[in-house]
Design the sequence.
């Protein structure tokens, strides 16, 4: 009976995701035409590729910097939002809005702000500071970090708010009875209770971090400044050359790394509970 | 006690206002920019975009507000309508597919007890957690084999079968009280009847949540159409817009606003469901 309901969806994910994914793993061990077995050759080629190394390092660095930053900023936003009653709803709507803004429609604005003659440099100049070539220097990386924070703050804020709502009021009362001040009750009640949420928010933030490619690509093109050349650029560029063997090897490795990270996070959290 | 509250509120409001300004300013820029004449745009953000001398400025209000770029876009740029229509040709079938294929699947995963259910649910979650860069090659291999490259189906089908809406709706169906289902089965209602009469009506909030998130996702999609649609005549607005930026500043501003409009409308009417959809991922199994 379950099959009647699940069938269509299951056929779809099998045909479009599961079978071709197995095929992708197979292709990573074969030559470009998918005929001759070449073993780990593609993997070696990928790992020795300088563009791949640059992109992998940048992507890891991007995740390592912007995920903790986003977690802190969005948790701060959620806590502040909960502590003020008036205007709370207006702020919530405001912070969520960037999620609905299609990347393509703000490309122009991003360029107007961050290009060399742009508004950011106008401000710097007015303040008497040195101007920066935002898109053509290592500052490009930080523009991307900023973009990611701008876009995802609201999404994470909602996750934190749900987590905070789940903390029972009696715990806070008990802490107050014990004479805990605001900082102490945050440290000993809020933080431990939020731990499961931390794991979840981190995993979702990691996945959303792959989407900054949209901004990066539309603002700076297929070959941006080295500091923001990400794995997503590399996949896109390799795809243009239809180098299926190397792409398959890279995709398999990326999937493996992500799955390991997710499993480790889950295990870590299960132990903590 | 009362006195110290007001400065505290101010202290809390300042960072919130600062963050909010970053959002409000963007919207303000979009609206005002599309009301500026081409001459004014050249004078204000020309230095950043078309290589004019000096630095950009941005006035709070346009000096001479005009609807001319918007009118020119709507009346004299048939290309724009083609792209707008192309976007809908991708969005509507994708989102409909997510509902028609996803809702029954979510119901089965949530409500039926059968062997392999846990494994299946895990597969859906794993698929949902993989970024496009991982699924790009598998998707390409099958789309190419089916001869669907460069057709709208190459974008629609992977979206329609995506695991995320199934997951959100599954969470919604989990909340349907068991007693209702037992009552229905005592009344002799079959599986399909129970699904249509109880599951779907009670699942409406999570279904809407999935639809709102699905709409926003496909409306702004870049990677999928860029990878699978080679022929520019099939391109959605999201790919077309960045191309006109350099050519026609006035038109580009107006087009950006019109691209934002449907997404913003969906957002304001569906915000409650959007929040629900985000939270769905947060509920522990």
Sequence:
């Amino acid at each position: 009976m379950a099959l009647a309901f699940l069938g269509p969806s299951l056929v779809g994910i099998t045909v479009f995701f599961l079978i071709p994914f197995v095929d992708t793993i197979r292709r990573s061990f074969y030559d470009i035409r998918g005929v001759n077995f070449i073993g780990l050759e593609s993997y070696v080629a990928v790992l020795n590729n300088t563009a791949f190394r640059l992109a992998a390092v940048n992507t890891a660095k991007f995740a390592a910097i912007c995920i903790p930053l986003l977690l802190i900023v969005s948790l701060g936003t959620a806590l502040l939002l909960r502590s003020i009653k008036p205007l709370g709803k207006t702020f919530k709507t405001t912070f969520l809005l960037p999620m609905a803004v299609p990347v393509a429609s703000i490309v122009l604005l991003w360029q107007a702000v961050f290009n060399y003659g742009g508004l950011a440099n106008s401000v710097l100049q007015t303040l008497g500071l040195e101007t920066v070539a935002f898109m053509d220097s290592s500052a490009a990386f930080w523009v991307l970090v900023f973009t990611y924070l701008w876009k995802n703050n609201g999404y994470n804020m909602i996750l934190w708010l749900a987590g905070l709502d789940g903390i029972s009021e009696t715990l806070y009362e008990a802490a107050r009875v014990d004479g805990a001040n605001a900082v102490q009750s945050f440290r000993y009640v809020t933080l431990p209770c939020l731990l499961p949420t931390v794991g979840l928010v981190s995993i979702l933030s990691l996945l959303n971090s792959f989407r900054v490619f949209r901004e990066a690509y539309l603002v700076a093109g297929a070959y941006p400044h080295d500091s923001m050349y990400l794995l997503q650029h590399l996949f896109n560029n390799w795809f243009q050359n239809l180098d299926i063997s190397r792409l398959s090897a890279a995709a398999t490795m990326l999937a493996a790394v992500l799955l390991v990270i997710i499993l480790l996070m889950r295990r870590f959290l299960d132990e903590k509970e | 006690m009362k006195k110290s509250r007001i400065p505290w509120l101010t202290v809390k409001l300042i960072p919130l206002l600062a963050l909010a300004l970053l959002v409000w300013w963007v919207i303000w820029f979009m609206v005002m920019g599309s009301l500026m004449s081409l001459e004014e745009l050249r004078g204000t953000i020309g230095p950043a975009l078309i290589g004019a001398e000096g630095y950009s400025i941005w006035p709070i209000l346009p000096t001479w507000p005009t609807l001319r770029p918007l009118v020119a876009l709507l009346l004299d740029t048939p290309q724009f309508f083609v792209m707008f229509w192309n976007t809908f040709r991708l969005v509507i079938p994708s989102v409909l597919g997510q509902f028609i294929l996803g809702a029954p699947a979510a119901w089965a995963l949530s409500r039926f007890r059968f062997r392999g259910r846990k494994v299946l649910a895990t597969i859906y979650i794993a698929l949902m957690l993989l970024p496009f860069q991982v699924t790009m090659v598998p998707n390409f291999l099958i789309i190419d084999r089916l001869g669907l490259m460069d057709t709208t189906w190459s974008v629609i089908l992977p979206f329609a079968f995506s695991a995320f809406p199934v997951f959100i709706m599954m969470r919604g169906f989990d909340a349907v009280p068991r007693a209702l289902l037992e009552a229905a089965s005592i009344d002799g209602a079959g599986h399909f009847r129970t699904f249509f009469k109880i599951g779907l009506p009670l699942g409406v909030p999570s279904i809407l949540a999935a639809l709102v998130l699905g709409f926003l996702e496909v409306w702004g999609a870049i990677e999928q159409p860029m990878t699978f649609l080679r022929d520019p005549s099939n391109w959605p607005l999201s790919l077309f817009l960045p191309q006109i930026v350099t050519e026609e500043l006035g038109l580009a501003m107006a087009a950006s606003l019109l691209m934002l409009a449907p997404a913003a409308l969906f957002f304001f009417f569906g915000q409650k469901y959007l929040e629900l959809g985000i939270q769905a991922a947060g509920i522990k199994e």
